[in-house]
Amino acid sequence: MRILLFGRLGDQLGRELEIEAPRSGCTLAELRQLLCSRGAAFRETLGHASVRGCVDQVIVSDDTHVHPGQEVAFIPPLSGG
Fold this sequence. Notes:
Elements (H helix, E strand, L loop, with lengths): L1 E4 L2 H6 L2 E3 L7 E2 H9 L3 H7 L5 E4 L2 E3 L4 E2 L5 E4 L6
Parallel strand pairs: 1-7
Antiparallel strand pairs: 1-2, 3-6, 4-5, 4-7
Helix pairs in contact: 2-3
């Protein structure tokens, strides 16, 4: 599964990651946990609730089921002005 990382997340971990996800898919929370198991840098960067997950370019909750082939991205907290 291809994971895209934007903003400071991409600066710290790389803009794109490949991981092996279950064929039946998983929740975004499980995917985040799988990524965080890669080490301290991943836990410190992706482990915050303020980091939002997107599936097919839509911000979703962590209980959303993700299927192989879907576009998954994580974005840092947004601010506007």
